[in-house]
Amino acid sequence: MQRMFMRRVGLALLLMLAATALTFWLVTAAPGNVAALIAERAAGSGADGEMIARIADDLGLNDPLPVRYARWLGDALTGDFGVSLRTGKPMAEEFAERIPMTLALLVGGGILALVISLAMGIAGAASNGGVVDRVLHGLALVGASTPNFFVAALLVIVFSVWLGVLPSFGVSGLTSWLLPWVTIALFPASVLARVVRVNLQDTMSRPFATTGFAKGLTRRAVLFREALPNIAIPYMTTFGAQFTLMIIGAIVVERVFGLNGVGAFFIEAIRFRDFIGMQATLTLFVVFFVSVNLTVDLLAMLADPRLRRPRKA
Amino acid sequence: MKNWPWAILAPATIFVLIGIFSPWLMTHNPAAQDYAALLEGPSWSHWLGTDYLGRDMFSRIIGGARTSLVAMVFVLVAALAIGVVIGSFAGYVGGKTELVLISMIDIALALPSLVIALALMGVFSGANFDWMSDYWKMIVALTLAWWANYARMSRAVVVAELQQPYIEAARVMGASHIWIFTRHILPHVLGLVVVYASADAGALVLAIATLSFLGLGVAPPTPEWGQMLVDGMSYIEENTALVIIPGLALTAVVVSFNLLGEAFALQKVPRAVRGRFLARKKAARAAEETARNEVEA
Amino acid sequence: MNAIYEVQGLVIDLYTPTVSVRAVDGAGFHVAPGETLAIVGESGSGKTVMTLGPLGLLPEGVAVDLRGTARADGKDILAMTPADLSRLRGGFFGVIFQDPMSALNPMLKIGPQLARQAQVYAGLSAEAAKREAVSLLARSGIPDPEDRYDRYPHELSGGMLQRAMIALALAARPRVLIADEPTTALDATVQAQILALIRQIQKEDGIAVILITHDIGAVSVLADRVAVLYAGQVAEEGSAMDVLTAPVHPYTRGLLASVPDFRSETASGTKEIPGIPPNQAQLVPGCRFADRCDQVQPQCHRRRPRLQTVGTGALPHRVACPVVIAAEGIVTHD
Fold this sequence. Notes:
Shape of chain B: flat
Oligomer: heterotrimer
Mean pLDDT of chain A: 86
Largest sheet of chain A: none
Low-confidence stretches of chain B: none
Order of helices and strands of chain B: HHHHHHHHHHH
């Protein structure tokens, strides 16, 4: 199993390399003339051809692409992600300021999604086709269909505008995190609740569930002792996928609630043609996604006793 | 596909029909502004009220349906085409080509689709792409973000089908590659892919709306529900309808597509018979039993 | 008759979204302590449903409608509360299922499951339960039981797993052991060992054993009594000797004739029963075997044959075929 481990890690690194190379190529191919952009920013309309050429030379923009990528990679590995074309601050500094915010959103949202989805899925399975099951199923369907910006808007309308209980802007204290977290968690919770419910239903009709009944366990006991351990792996895999999707929720939430995280920065970078900022943020995203997927893969391998202890003769 | 609940198709079909017939369903010109009637509630002339520029909400919603529908169809068709072609080719040809293509697909799947679309919108903001309108930038970005999943699916189906004995039989009988592919394999690929796409349509509508909400999708004055919602956010204190109505429309449409997807998926999960269905079956059985008892008496 | 598990007049309908099946159509059986009853029939004859149905041990996902009477140790099973029924399933009955690979939870270790049964139903302490579990594994013929205690199902071979399942069934010290096709999923040599193990356990513990099988060989090795099931109805039942050596019902005769007996000097190959298995989604009047029977009479399609007692042995021999009884002048004792 060690070998499988190392193989996955190796593949993940390769993937990161390839993905960042691709984004590098795309982002550098886009602007047409970064040097001109920079010159404009620096000297306004006074920028002339000579100045542009000098900037291009300075930044090594005329070198072949692989060389530029290698240079960028080298810089990146030492923590230098360039300077934002929009804010003028080094990207490393922007990240240091903004990553904690986005991380807090993701982690809070993730925990909320975990708890809600498990509660809903298990409650549905315990009811097994009864009213509770069908209501929760409907809720999950709607939850998985509602755009997260609409959820955010609705929560703001209800709790800020009508009830005036929770803030609609910024975060200051625990309660102000509630609306952002709920907004981010709703979609993943709904998808995961369905995964739990369907997998539990499938598992409960497998032969070993009947053995569980034959052991004298009540249905609730069979659900928790025999069935639940068997959904761990599909749940983990879906959770990993949903967790990476939550970055979009974070982007939307940061916009709606005016939080300065990485997501908001990314959108601003796109709108203001801050290609260096875009490049750096995309790299961050790639690292994030590949790492999360890798972690989930590895955890799933560890959770499966069939992989933990391969069959002996 | 027996016991297929055809009713499930209804909501999605309604959306498609609204989208197609939208110009005839509108009561007003969705772009027409009326400064005399700003932020009004529902009335006989404006069924769903007006927005902050006096535009008729009802017509804008109907118009938004068409915008979403058209964009969705473009992207789905293009992504399907690209995905099926690349995936099938990879699966059929095999060898090094397949490996290269698989790597491409894996890289394209390393990021969630919407993030890729966002990133591409960022790339397209560069000067090199000024020739593309915002609308087409969005379509292309989404297409490039969406094809990889279909490619992976197509490849899997092709690989599975190629292992079936009837393929070899066809080859022995002298069928050409193209014949084998179009006649035997393609139907299977399309079967799976189309089913997935119908459920995926909901996610795509959400993606289009999200991009527009973030200001990176459809630009005004073209009506689009995400766009309308983000505009309405500024007036959230005065008139929540500007936010609620497009939001509900979006949710309704996505629910209708997700219902489709559910129906497909649930075909495979065993479901116990309950309630009235069970009662009917029991009654039928009891009737049979009485009939038999009479014969045996 | 001091039956410890008896079922009478059982009618079981199974409902799925697409079909309604009458798995058991007015059948019953009984088994006494220290006795082995073999329930024999083709796949789909209702053997498992009849035996496990009253205990509520049918797979989830199928709606079950059950009528009749069922008693365990004199108590009415069908009137029990769910809690009592659970205790009955766990402590009074032990069940061995067909395919041990799928009947054991892949995510749980084997030993602790046994220990828990011993703890809950035999009232042992945690440490004593663990020792009991290990000794049960040993008794079931599993080498190195302390090591196997901590193993997962996928780490054991099919034969070992079946032994583990037997140990699990015995851990709660049940009074009735139900073995549902315990050897079907195993190799031939292992089959014999498993059957021998069951026989040994019965002799030592004096429990009642119900063996559900379509393997006549296993029946001849283990059974004291045999019940033959066809399309959810009992065709013939009696002592193993009576049923296997002097069968009366045409189905039983056909079944036994279709078993190759390479020990017999007059062996001339097998004779199959013509026709196809019955469609149990439909209720058919009369005898279900009539379509395939070589003794069929007009009355067979109209009247349901009831069980009549023939013979004079200690264990009653009952047959549901008035045609053969009349034709061969067999004396009935009803």
